[in-house]
Every structure is written in structure tokens, then in C-alpha cells.
């Protein structure tokens, strides 16, 4: 029997099946919303809704196709045993994510539901590797489409939606990544996942609500959000990430991480980022604290409005509980690695690179780089 921390369980299979259903449902509801705005002659809202959907679709298909091309076996065959042209055609018809779900659920079903004997550890790790790539693509899709879409709908319709999809995509990616790395000794998964989920739910909720207040105050606040994206992208660029095999794809990746950094901290280099995280959340806290205050100060008529008190309470409460959960997670629940060098500030990626150089001149594959890049969420 395999250790529980490396088993691709039936629960994980069901979660991925549910993820496919939510993915399809999310796209359908966004398309329906765009059509609704168009029929109401609200062409700007309809166009922006379509723009967010298309941006996410195009970016995720590009990365998915590139990863399939890069993931080759010793016989130079792609992961799906298809030609590059056929894989490209499938992605042109926007089937990349669906195809990844299909193969993950198909192979996972054979391991979880059909096979009576316990599968080898490498098979379970392979499934988690597949799930990690899929989760990362979903992470890109979430913060390129769902998060901006949520902010747009909050501005148009009011405060009746919550960013659970955004937070779950981060938690799901974090969980799959840690399971796919055999040198990470996960503690009991349930409590760390719960605390990490609370941290992400609270912090992302408070920052999105804060942005919505700024946009309510002035539509030109979107310029400030754009500047935050530029700063995040610049920071990732200065880190000189090597996540992708091509220069153009690497630049696109850095731009996407810049979008994620608008809403949540994301370690783009896989090394100890305690100081950077502190700076990020100091700025984040400043944004959250000042949003309700500025709205109340610049619009005195809003001071007695129930919605301002409600949203302000959610922002401050989310900020407090989110940062408290963040501290608890990294203080007590953050999984250690099997190498004590992490305590000295060395990244897992650096240790693995050193091991590859000692073993021989062969460089690690791009697949392993993707899996090892984000050791700390």
C-alpha cells in the first residue's frame, strides 16, 4: 500500500471530475452573461465580458499546447503520442483543457476504480503531475478571467458574488504540487489545507472588495490596478524566471503572474520569499484599510450606508483573519522538505539543480521545472 500522502485517491478523482463540470459551467455562464448584456444593448459590458473570457482561453491554450510539445519521452514522442500538428489543431479548437481533463480522469479512473492491486508510487506521482499542470492552467484561467470578471460584476451589479473559484484554484494547485513532489513531507493534509484555504478566501475577498470600492469611487482607479500589474510583472521579470523553454512564452508567463499578483501573492521563483511576502502584504493591507476610509471621506453621503459598513466589515475582517491564518500556516503547518537546507533559505529548485549537475551533464526536463518552480505558495 502506498503512503497516503502520495496516493491519487478517489476523492481527488472526484474533485477533478467536479472541476471539469465547474470549468464548463463557468464558461457557459460567462457567455450567457455576455449575450444578456448584448441583448440589453450594453455593448461595453458585453465586450469586456467576452474580452476576459477570450484572454483566458487564448493564454491557457497557448501554455497547454507548448507544454504538450515540451513533454517528450526518451523516444521523442509527445505525452499524448500525437504529432505536434494534431496537438496544435486540438488547441486551436479550444480543446486543450478538456483534453487534459479527459486523460487525467481516464488514467485516474483506471488506478482508483478499476485496479484492485495498489499501483506503483511513480504512477500516482504521474497522476499528480498531470493534475498539477491542469491546476496551473486553471490558475491562469481563474485570474485572467474569473477574478477580473468578478470585479466587473461587482461594479455593475453589486456585492452578491464571492471569489471562491479564485481561492480554490490556488489551493488546488498548491495541493497537487505538493503531492507531486516526493521530497516534500506533507503533514496531515486536512488541517493545512483548511487553514490555507481560509487564508486565501479571506485575503482575496478583502482585496477584490477593496478594488471594487476604488472603482466605485472613480473608474480611473483601474489605472492604479494596471500599475500594480506592471509592478508585479516587472518584479517577476527581475527575478529572471526560467519557467518556459522559449523567450516569448517566458515573457507571457511573467505577464500572467503579474495578473495573479494583483489579487494574491504568488511565489514566482521557488525560493525563500519571507521578506518579499512581508512587503507585499504591507502594501496589500494599506490598500484594504484605505479603501472604505477614502470612500467615506470623499463621499460623505455614503458614511451611513449599510452597504459601506457591510463591505467595510468584510474587508477588515477578511484582512484580519487572512493574515492571522497566513501566520498560523507558515508558523505551524507549512510542510517541511526532506532536506534541511530549506531552513537555511535555499530553494528546493536550487537543490534539485545541484543534484542534476552532480549526477551528470543532463539538464532537468521542462516538466520538472514546472513542478519544482513553485515550492512555496
Order of helices and strands: HHHHHHHHHHHHH
Give the helix tally.
13
Q: What percentage of residues falls in helices of 4 or more residues?
A: over 70%
Q: Quick one: how many beta strands?
A: 0
Please compute the radius of gyration using only Cα atoms. Answer: 21 Å
Report the uncertain regions: 160-166, 180-184, 338-369, 371-377
Give the averaged pLDDT, no decimals. Answer: 76
What structural class results from the helix and strand content?
mainly alpha
Instruction: Tell me the major beta sheet.
Output: none
- How does the overall form come out from the CA principal axes? globular
**Beta-strand residue fraction:** under 5%
Report the span from N to C terminus: 29 Å
Amino acid at each position: 500500500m502506498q503512503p497516503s500522502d502520495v496516493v491519487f485517491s478517489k476523492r481527488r478523482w472526484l474533485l477533478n471530475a467536479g472541476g471539469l463540470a465547474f470549468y464548463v459551467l463557468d464558461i457557459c455562464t460567462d457567455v450567457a452573461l455576455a449575450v444578456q448584456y448584448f441583448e440589453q444593448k450594453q455593448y461595453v459590458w458585453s465586450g469586456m465580458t467576452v474580452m476576459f473570457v477570450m484572454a483566458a482561453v487564448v493564454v491557457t491554450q497557448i501554455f497547454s499546447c507548448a507544454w504538450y510539445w515540451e513533454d517528450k519521452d526518451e523516444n521523442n514522442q509527445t505525452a499524448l503520442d500525437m504529432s505536434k500538428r494534431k496537438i496544435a489543431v486540438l488547441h486551436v479548437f479550444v480543446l486543450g483543457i478538456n483534453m487534459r481533463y479527459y486523460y487525467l480522469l481516464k488514467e485516474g479512473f483506471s488506478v482508483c476504480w478499476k485496479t484492485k492491486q495498489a499501483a506503483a508510487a511513480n504512477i500516482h506521482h504521474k497522476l499528480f503531475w498531470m493534475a498539477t499542470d491542469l491546476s496551473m492552467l486553471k490558475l491562469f484561467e481563474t485570474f485572467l478571467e474569473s477574478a477580473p470578471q468578478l470585479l466587473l460584476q461587482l461594479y455593475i451589479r453589486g456585492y452578491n458574488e464571492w471569489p471562491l473559484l479564485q481561492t480554490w484554484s490556488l489551493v488546488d494547485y498548491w495541493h497537487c504540487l505538493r503531492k507531486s513532489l516526493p521530497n516534500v513531507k506533507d503533514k496531515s493534509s486536512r488541517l493545512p489545507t483548511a487553514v490555507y484555504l481560509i487564508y486565501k478566501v479571506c485575503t482575496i475577498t478583502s482585496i477584490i472588495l477593496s478594488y471594487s470600492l476604488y472603482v466605485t469611487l472613480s473608474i480611473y482607479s483601474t489605472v492604479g490596478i494596471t500599475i500594480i500589474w506592471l509592478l508585479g510583472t516587472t518584479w517577476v521579470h527581475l527575478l529572471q524566471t526560467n519557467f518556459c523553454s522559449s523567450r516569448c512564452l517566458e515573457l507571457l508567463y511573467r505577464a500572467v503572474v503579474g495578473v495573479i499578483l494583483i489579487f494574491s501573492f504568488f511565489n514566482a521563483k521557488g525560493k525563500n520569499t519571507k521578506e518579499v511576502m512581508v512587503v507585499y502584504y504591507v502594501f496589500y493591507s494599506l490598500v484594504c484599510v484605505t479603501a472604505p476610509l477614502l470612500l467615506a471621506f470623499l463621499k460623505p453621503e455614503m458614511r451611513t450606508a449599510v452597504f459601506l459598513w457591510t463591505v467595510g466589515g468584510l474587508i477588515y475582517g477578511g484582512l484580519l483573519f487572512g493574515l492571522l491564518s497566513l501566520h498560523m500556516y507558515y508558523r505551524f503547518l507549512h510542510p517541511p522538505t526532506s532536506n534541511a537546507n530549506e531552513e537555511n533559505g535555499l530553494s528546493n529548485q536550487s537543490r534539485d539543480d545541484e543534484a542534476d549537475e552532480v549526477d551528470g551533464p543532463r539538464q532537468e526536463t521542462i516538466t520538472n521545472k514546472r513542478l519544482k518552480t513553485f515550492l512555496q505558495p
